[in-house]
């Protein structure tokens, strides 16, 4: 049975050139200049955000610093600063939370809002969101821009916000849906990439409107259930809802790092891995969750390897190994998590030169209030509870004085290895409750 045609009002707000715009807001000398924000400032570091001015000159996300510099000779490059971006996101999201009780923090720079029932129609919602955009500029930063899409579904709202960048506002409804789809290329919607495009073109479909009008049976024979999903999305049928942070919890939390050669030369592999585990544990504790297992992945350098950020690099260029360490009971304290992660690391790594490290805390759950018969206390408390209290206290100290203010002895001597990074997918831990306006 097909889902119903959606009559909802869904908003997608996407901050434009976000990391670069935040840097330009923070430093007036960067405003109006082509700017690239990079994971690393080395020649083969990757551009993860380009300012609006840089994009107009041909700089693209994913370029190496070397290629971006050749493309835009006058560009300025800075290394990314995750705490700065999280702080700005918190202030933006605090404004958006005033619009509805159903908001999904989709990533560090975008959010979905279900404003059904809060506003009479898309026109009223657009009027309110225009004022919200002005509030973001006045209260958070005059250099920040955002694109807004309003539509009956998440898919169409995101499609609408992508149609006019920067600083656009587009409404898609059931009346103008065909007109909007006719204006778009096959790859202009989320979920259709070069390979899917080729397969659609082999079937005779050249535009999204033709795909919408295609037989759902033909699409399912060619793409399986993904063909059905695409057909439903293009018809404005609802099968994805806006999920607020409190109604969903992550199943795992992890961190990875592409290891430069100096980590091997200076014998800092274990220390770097401890740092990754500590960061994952800290994120998990901020959500009040426990892990039941720790997954460890190690990539070894293979023949022909050029450099960690070189053109021939891949995470598992040579051989690699992985293992899952199951904990005796769900835990969140640093001592158990780091000890278990190191145990797994030593199982798959015997001193080889590595190029990739990853740790994932799996099987996440909330603490149970169930009483343990042997201790007469909640299941997450007991003789090791003092370790959790120490871990929480360390988190407070690091929040105030920085990551290097207190650490395991095994991490002493680390420099800038495994720096904090921002992901581009779902974002947990953005604090919108304690914002100073």
Widest beta sheet: strand line-up: 5-6-1-7-8
Radius of gyration: 24 Å
Helix segment count? 15
CATH fold annotation of the largest domain: Alpha-Beta Plaits
- Strand residues, percent: 15-25%
Q: In CATH, what is the homologous superfamily of the largest domain?
A: Reverse transcriptase/Diguanylate cyclase domain
Order of helices and strands: EHEEHHEHEEHEHEHHHHHEHHEEHEH
Global geometry? globular
* Total strands: 12
Describe what this molecule looks like in 3D.
This protein is of the alpha+beta class and 437 residues long. It is 36% helix and 17% strand. The strands form three sheets. A five-stranded mixed sheet has the order 5-6-1-7-8. It folds into two domains: 1-248, Alpha-Beta Plaits; 249-411, DNA polymerase, Y-family, little finger domain (Dna Ligase, domain 1), CATH 3.30.1490.100. The termini are far apart. The protein is built from 15 helices and twelve strands.
Present the secondary structure layout.
Layout: E1 10-15, H1 18-26, E2 35-38, E3 47-50, H2 52-56, H3 65-71, E4 76-79, H4 82-96, E5 103-107, E6 110-114, H5 122-140, E7 146-151, H6 154-163, E8 169-171, H7 177-182, H8 194-202, H9 208-212, H10 216-223, H11 225-234, E9 252-258, H12 261-265, H13 269-286, E10 291-300, E11 320-331, H14 334-348, E12 354-362, H15 385-401
Parallel strand pairs: 2-4, 7-8
Antiparallel strand pairs: 1-6, 1-7, 2-3, 5-6, 9-12, 10-11, 10-12
Helix pairs in contact: 4-5, 10-11, 13-14
């Amino acid at each position: 049975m097909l889902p119903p045609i959606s009559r909802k009002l869904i908003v997608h707000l996407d901050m434009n050139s976000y990391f670069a715009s935040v840097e330009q807001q923070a430093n007036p000398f960067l405003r109006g200049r082509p700017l690239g924000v990079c994971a690393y400032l080395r020649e083969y570091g990757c551009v993860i955000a380009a300012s609006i001015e840089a994009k107009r000159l041909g700089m693209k996300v994913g370029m190496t610093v070397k290629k971006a510099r050749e493309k835009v000779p006058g560009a300025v490059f800075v290394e990314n600063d995750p705490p700065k971006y999280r702080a700005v996101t918190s202030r933006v999201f605090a404004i958006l939370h005033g619009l509805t009780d159903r908001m999904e923090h989709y990533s560090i720079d975008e959010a979905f809002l279900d404003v059904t029932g809060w506003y009479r129609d898309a026109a009223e919602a657009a009027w309110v969101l225009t004022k919200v955009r002005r509030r973001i500029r006045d209260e958070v930063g005059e250099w920040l821009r955002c694109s807004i899409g309003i539509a009956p579904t998440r898919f169409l709202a995101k499609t609408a916000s992508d149609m006019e960048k920067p600083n656009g506002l587009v409404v898609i409804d059931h009346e103008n849906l065909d007109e909007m789809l006719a204006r778009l290329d096959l790859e202009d919607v989320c979920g259709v990439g070069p390979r899917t495009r080729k397969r659609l073109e082999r079937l005779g479909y050249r535009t999204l409107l033709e795909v919408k009008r295609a037989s759902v049976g033909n699409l399912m024979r060619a793409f399986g259930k993904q063909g059905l999903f695409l057909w439903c999305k293009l018809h404005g049928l609802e099968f994805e809802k806006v999920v607020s942070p409190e109604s969903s919890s992550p199943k795992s939390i992890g961190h990875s790092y592409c290891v430069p050669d100096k980590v091997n030369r200076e014998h800092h592999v274990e220390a770097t891995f401890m740092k990754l585990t500590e960061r994952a544990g800290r994120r998990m504790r901020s959500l009040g969750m426990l892990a039941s297992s720790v997954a460890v992945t190690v990539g070894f350098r293979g023949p022909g390897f050029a450099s960690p950020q070189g053109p021939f690099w891949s995470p598992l260029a040579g051989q690699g190994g992985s293992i899952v360490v199951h904990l005796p009971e769900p835990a969140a304290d640093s001592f158990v998590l780091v000890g278990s992660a190191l145990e797994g690391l030593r199982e798959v790594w015997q001193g080889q030169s590595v190029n990739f490290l990853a740790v994932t805390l799996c099987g996440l759950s909330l603490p149970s209030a169930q009483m343990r018969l042997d201790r007469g206390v909640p299941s997450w408390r007991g003789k090791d509870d003092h370790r959790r209290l120490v871990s929480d206290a360390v988190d407070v100290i690091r929040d105030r004085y920085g990551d290097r203010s207190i650490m395991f002895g095994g991490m002493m001597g680390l420099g800038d290895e495994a720096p904090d990074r921002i992901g581009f997918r779902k974002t947990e831990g953005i604090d919108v409750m304690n914002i100073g306006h």
